Amino acid sequence: MKAMVYHGNQDLRLESVPDPSPAEGEALLKVDYCGICATDIEEYVYGPKFIAKGKMPIVTGHEVTATVVEPPTGSDGLSPGTRVALNTVLTCGTCFWCNKGDTPQCEQFTVVGFDRDGGLAEYLAWPANELIPLPDSVPSEAAALIEPSSVAHHCVQRGNIQPGETVAVVGAGTVGTLAMQIAKAQGARVFVVDVKQMSLDLASELGAEVAINAAEEDAHSVLTSLTDGRGPDVVIDAAGAPNTPADCLRYVRRGGRVVLVAIYTSTPEFDFNTIVANENTVIGTIAYGRSDVQASVDLIASGKLKTTPLITDRISLDEVIDVGFPRMLAPTKDVFRILVKP
């Protein structure tokens, strides 16, 4: 089969590799779509960061939706032709963190495209018990963004966002726009902050109460005025710029919560005395659990979470290197997600 294989820093190759051989309990899947994520780009440009050198070369790609070709013997609910979402984060289920329900902290945390072969390929093998059948109301294209939706859902749950709270999402990219919709579905009032008008326009279309262009207006003043002079209850950093953690701590109300969901490629600096004096809570969030994947499927099926407006383009596997990555790397990036149809 054809696959995009990561060999190291800025070394990605389209190669012919053997079809996967499913282990016991695994299904053979035909990849329907795989998204190109900002993390893939960061790994390509700055990595290897998340991929261990001993695991290279590896088929990359982790935002996958697929169709079952061959289920394992005795599998319940899966048959050839079943469209599925993947819980792409595998955990041991027995360690201290798994027993506490903190599965993203599992000592044996394994992710598709980073720890084992991923979805930028024609076929993929994955444990059948980590596949979630898609209802007819969820098209495969929409399901291709279930992985970032699960990241966003886990972020909102980590922030313990409650109905009636005010939430500012800084960074209206893919994860930020998904988190905005999920927080709104939970009953929060949601605002977004970005410096790209294209992103702000889409966030407004998808339900942001106010979209603030921080390049043109003082976001702190606007957010303060929208929240009776206090600041939002929760601020989510989905931007990951060097200045955004400090910005989030400036925007949030005293006693409020800041949730960091971005991956930082530099080392941000801010005055920790701000956290101390204002009794703020800063929360990190990474990846997701199986329940977040199921919740994302349910939200898309209900119409409360819209993912297809975030699909900017669809390309073939042959176009990943010459079209997909250059568009994602462009300084004037004009895309949210590019889907690859192997």
Walkthrough of the structure:
The chain is globular, with a radius of gyration of 20 Å. The model has no long low-confidence stretch (mean pLDDT 96). 29% of the residues lie in helices and 26% in strands. The strands form four sheets. Strands 3, 5, 6, 9, 10, 17 and 18 form a seven-stranded mixed β-sheet that branches. Strands 13-12-11-14-15-16 form a six-stranded parallel β-sheet, sandwiched between helices. It has a three-stranded antiparallel β-sheet with strand order 2-1-4, with no helix packed on it. The protein has 342 residues and is of the alpha/beta class.
> Taking all residues together, what is the mean pLDDT?
96
**What fraction, in percent, of the residue positions are helical?**
25-40%
Distinct helical segment count: 11
Order of helices and strands: EEEHEEEEHEEEHHEHEHEHEHEHEHEHE
N-C termini distance: 10 Å
Strand pairing plus helix content: what structural class?
A: alpha/beta
Instruction: Work out the strand percent.
Output: 25-35%
Low-confidence stretches: none
Number of distinct beta strands? 18
The backbone outline, from C-alpha atoms, is: globular
| Computed CA radius of gyration, to the nearest angstrom | 20 Å
Biggest sheet, open or closed, and with what strands and sense? 7 strands, mixed
Q: Features of this protein?
A:
342 residues, alpha/beta, 7-stranded mixed sheet, 6-stranded parallel sheet, 11 helices, 18 strands, 26% strand, globular
Q: Would you summarize the structure shown here?
A:
With 342 residues, this protein is of the alpha/beta class.
